[in-house]
TrEMBL record, chain B:
<keyword id="KW-0479">Metal-binding</keyword>
<dbReference type="GO" id="GO:0046872">
    <property type="term" value="F:metal ion binding"/>
</dbReference>
<dbReference type="InterPro" id="IPR050573">
    <property type="entry name" value="SDH/FRD_Iron-Sulfur"/>
</dbReference>
<dbReference type="InterPro" id="IPR025192">
    <property type="entry name" value="Succ_DH/fum_Rdtase_N"/>
</dbReference>
<keyword id="KW-0816">Tricarboxylic acid cycle</keyword>
<dbReference type="InterPro" id="IPR009051">
    <property type="entry name" value="Helical_ferredxn"/>
</dbReference>
<comment type="similarity">
    <text>Belongs to the succinate dehydrogenase/fumarate reductase iron-sulfur protein family.</text>
</comment>
<feature type="domain" description="4Fe-4S ferredoxin-type">
    <location>
        <begin position="162"/>
        <end position="192"/>
    </location>
</feature>
<dbReference type="Pfam" id="PF13183">
    <property type="entry name" value="Fer4_8"/>
</dbReference>
<dbReference type="GO" id="GO:0008177">
    <property type="term" value="F:succinate dehydrogenase (quinone) activity"/>
</dbReference>
<dbReference type="InterPro" id="IPR004489">
    <property type="entry name" value="Succ_DH/fum_Rdtase_Fe-S"/>
</dbReference>
<dbReference type="GO" id="GO:0009055">
    <property type="term" value="F:electron transfer activity"/>
</dbReference>
<keyword id="KW-0004">4Fe-4S</keyword>
<dbReference type="GO" id="GO:0006099">
    <property type="term" value="P:tricarboxylic acid cycle"/>
</dbReference>
<dbReference type="InterPro" id="IPR012675">
    <property type="entry name" value="Beta-grasp_dom_sf"/>
</dbReference>
<dbReference type="Pfam" id="PF13085">
    <property type="entry name" value="Fer2_3"/>
</dbReference>
<feature type="region of interest" description="Disordered">
    <location>
        <begin position="1"/>
        <end position="20"/>
    </location>
</feature>
Length: 584, 260
């Protein structure tokens, strides 16, 4: 075992982690731990843009952006947090530009802006050009720019260090975070990082689903670690399905395509979104578009030999717009489906994309241990966190915004907290014990179950039973399946017993997190007997503000994979917007 | 599966159902695990695969159902994260961007796909190499915007034409396909390599940047741009379609004529 001591430890090196590191690293001694290399993080796969009311191309203001975010989230958004995000969005974009991000430009040389789903002028009048972008590689540019600036500031990275636990030290005022425990992939060695503050920025858990835009590595490790510590997760039933994944593959095609004018059509060529969202049509928020697509297919109007997808028509945009503003998605369609968007429509279907829920935090990124108290020294930001700025459904571009605004806030808060503490709080006894036991157990012989089989079955049941539309019956099936898979997980066999880059072991550990998070998702979806944002219950088709205008909170009861889940609720923060019916 | 005799790990049990339209291909992989091997060896696996499968799918099939010790990096699986650069049939490619249909032999001939780690970087295990020397070269060229004086209140103004000037090199995902395809890099590891020069280019030709001279000084070094022998391997290897050799030439010209 090796021991390290830092002021701040940041776990994850995507957008949120590196944005936090740039702030923290200039204030306090900071280490960034990532199970990948920083530039491999999935922020780089984001495409369309990052919204901010710069008003560079038409009238706009951050209050409209706040309203759109809250309405887009079906009023489950904490309004104080949404206001902060929309307000700070402007500086967040300008900061990135000053760091070197190569945004597309207007003819005057200012940052160009494009339309995006759910972002409107004057509270829903019409689509507004709010998304700042760099072709369809905005996430790539953000990830590269943040990494470049980490290099500039000499940020210290521990690459391919897989964090498996955090250290909580009990004090008279409750638990305090005192460090993190990591498994070094190169050597199999365990490292204990003592720290005054720890920031989680570990991203999402899209791999609970089969059809997903998420990377293989998005297995919810951060959320899973926090949950196993008995700390809550929030709003886990709200999972976003992005309307336009490449059919059958799930690879993302940006909403920016529709922002540039692309149109969704069913088998007969009808622009069906006119029926579902008469005002902003194809630029309705993602939950609405995804449900509309699923309905078209369910009602027999899908395209293709099996009528199981719809078509994204970009042909009228012309080769130049596609090659200059949407070059990557044009290439994806050509490479993976052998379809050329310049001349033919692209088969698309909703793909599991983004967790609205996660580790509950306040607006400073401090992690909550219940509705009222924080865990001193513990922070979270980005997709793994739930502030909540996305409520029941995130608007497109608001994730890139979230990681920059709240990554920055968490980095500053973590560093300032660390600087305000004279000395490190003692670590709990044997801080590495549970990780050592976990690794030893995974490597020991106790069964013949294959990780790939369990994962495949998990993904199949989640796709079939807990995706765009849900019912009591499908969710009960999913719950039953997930619980049975958890029992089988106790008998997995890891074939690689070595210490060096044991990715076989890594996948087994990741699967453990996926199973637990899938169960929490389904548990929450069963309990929420209403439809709101990304959570659509066929048996409860309406929003029920009387009973469910509140955040769900999930706590693990006891140890081990089969432990029970306790549910609680947390009030939504309102400032100036009253819930209204959500029409577009 | 018919892994060769020297395979250390056996089958992981029953195989998943073979999808309609699958063909059987042989995947021949250069293996090396310093924990147990004295020197690299070849393993062959016969597996069913669909023509629409990516090479990454084939590797996953082997790892998940045949030999869990097979080791490689991957993440996004669609050519954006740059994790899975490897030598596929002798050329550097991302395993997630090569489809089996483009590798299949014509007619009924059996297809064998050869996969090796990228060259020029120390092999840690199987297809997984030490990326540190690669990132060290990247970090050495000051790959970030250098400016002096006060920052403007709003964004810096940049014309669309000035933005276009360096567009090509902003696409780099640091996968190392270019650098590890370069014969000069194979023999002289001290050479910065194409990727580092691409990333220097991205800033040297950015109208907002004021660090061109510092970077050009670094690249004028004995291990800098002059090592390039214009073999175009790098341009052929780039999965993002970057004109790598052209970018290197533009940096050379900037050095020769002292202007950007």
């Amino acid at each position: 075992m090796q021991f390290h001591k830092y002021d701040v430890v940041i776990i994850g090196a995507g957008g949120a982690g590196m944005r936090a590191a740039i702030e923290s690293g200039q204030r306090a001694r900071t280490a960034v731990l990532t199970k990948l290399y920083p530039t491999r993080s999935h922020t780089g796969a984001a495409q369309g843009g990052m919204c901010a009311a710069l008003a560079n191309v038409e009238e706009d203001n951050w209050e409209w952006h706040t309203f759109d975010t809250i309405k887009g989230g079906d009023y489950l958004v904490d309004q104080d947090a949404a206001e902060i995000m929309a307000k700070e969005a402007i500086d967040a974009v300008l900061d990135l530009e000053k760091m070197g991000l190569p945004f597309n430009r207007t003819p005057e040389g200012k940052i160009d802006q494009r339309r995006f789903g759910g972002h409107t002028r004057n509270h829903g009048e019409a689509a507004v050009r709010r998304a700042c972008y760099a072709a369809d590689r905005t996430g790539h540019m953000i990830l590269q720019t943040l990494y470049q600036n980490c290099v500039k500031h000499g940020i210290e990275f521990f690459n391919e260090f897989y964090v498996l636990d955090i250290c909580l030290t009990e004090t008279e005022n409750g638990p305090v975070c005192t460090g993190a425990v990591a498994y070094e992939l190169a050597t199999g060695e365990i490292h204990v990082f003592q720290a005054k503050s720890v920031v989680f920025a570990t991203g999402g858990f899209g791999k609970v689903f089969k059809t997903t835009s998420n990377a293989h590595t998005l297995t919810g490790d951060g959320m899973g670690i926090v949950f196993r510590k008995g700390l809550p997760l929030e709003d886990m039933e709200f999972y976003q399905f992005h309307p336009t994944g490449l059919a059958g593959l799930g690879i993302l095609l940006t909403e920016g395509a529709r922002g540039e004018g692309a149109i969704l059509r069913n088998a007969s060529g009808e622009r069906f979104m006119e029926r579902y969202a008469p005002t902003i049509k194809d630029l309705a928020p993602r939950d609405i578009v995804a449900r509309s697509m699923a309905l078209e297919v369910l009602e027999g109007r899908g395209a293709g030999p099996n009528k199981d997808y719809v078509l994204l028509d970009c042909t009228h945009l012309g080769a130049e717009v596609l090659e200059t503003k949407l070059p990557d998605i044009t290439e994806f369609a050509r490479t993976y489906l052998a379809v050329d968007p310049v001349v033919e429509p692209v088969p698309v279907y909703p793909t599991a994309h983004y967790a609205m829920g996660g580790i509950p935090t306040n607006i400073h990124g401090e992690v909550l241990r219940d509705n009222d108290n924080v865990v001193p020294g513990l922070y979270a930001a980005g997709e793994c966190a739930c502030v909540s700025v996305h409520g029941a459904n995130r608007l497109g571009t608001n994730s890139l915004l979230d990681i920059n605004v709240f990554g920055r806030r968490a980095g500053i808060a973590a560093a300032e907290y660390a600087l305000s503490r004279e000395s490190h709080v003692d670590l709990p006894e044997n801080p590495a014990a549970s990780v050592e036991a976990q690794v030893a157990l995974a490597l020991s012989e106790h069964g013949q179950e294959r990780v790939a089989d369990i994962r495949t079955e998990l993904q199949a049941t989640m796709d079939a039973n807990a995706s765009v539309y849900r019912t009591e019956d499908t969710l009960k099936t999913a719950l039953h399946d997930v619980q049975a898979l958890k029992e089988r997980y106790a008998h997995i066999s890891v074939q690689d017993k070595g210490k060096r880059f044991n990715t076989d072991l890594l996948e087994a550990v990741e699967l453990g997190f996926l199973l637990e998070l899938a169960e929490v998702l389904v548990h929450g979806a069963l309990a929420r007997k209403e439809s709101r944002g990304g959570h659509a219950r066929e048996d409860y088709p309406n929003r029920d503000d009387t009973n469910f205008m509140r955040h769900s909170m999930f706590y693990k009861q006891g140890d081990g994979l089969s432990a029970d889940i306790r549910m609680d609720y947390k009030p939504v923060t309102f400032t100036r917007y009253k819930p209204m019916e959500r029409k577009y | 599966m018919t892994a060769t005799a020297e395979t250390t790990a056996g089958s992981r049990g029953s195989q998943p159902p073979v999808p309609d339209g699958a063909v059987t291909v042989t995947v021949k992989i250069r293996r090396f695990n310093p924990e147990i091997d004295d020197e690299p060896r070849w393993d062959s696996f016969d597996i069913p695969a669909l023509p629409s499968d990516r090479v990454l799918n084939l590797l996953h099939h082997i790892k998940w159902y045949v030999d869990g010790t097979l080791t490689f990096r991957r993440s996004c699986a669609h050519g954006i994260c740059g994790s899975d650069a490897m030598r596929i049939n002798g050329v550097n490619r991302l395993a997630c961007k090569v489809l089996l249909k483009d590798l299949l032999e014509k007619g009924d001939k059996h297809t064998t796909i050869t996969i090796e780690p990228i060259k020029g970087l120390p092999v840690h295990k199987d297809l997984l190499v030490d990326m540190e020397p690669f990132f060290e070269a990247f970090r050495a060229v000051k790959p970030y915007l250098v400016t002096y004086g006060n920052e403007p209140t709003r964004e810096r103004i940049q014309s669309a034409a000035d933005r276009e000037r360096f567009d090509d090199t902003t696409k780099c995902i640091l996968c190392a396909c270019c650098t590890t395809s370069c014969p000069v890099y194979w023999t002289e590891g001290s050479y910065f390599g194409p990727a580092a020069i691409v990333n220097a280019h991205r800033f040297i030709f950015d109208s907002r940047d004021e660090g061109a001279e510092e970077r050009l000084d670094i690249l004028n070094d004995i291990d800098g741009v002059w090592r390039c022998r214009t073999t175009f391997n790098c341009t052929d290897a780039c999965p993002r379609g970057i004109q790598v050799t052209k970018a290197i030439q533009e940096v050379k010209r900037a050095l020769l004529f002292k202007r950007v």
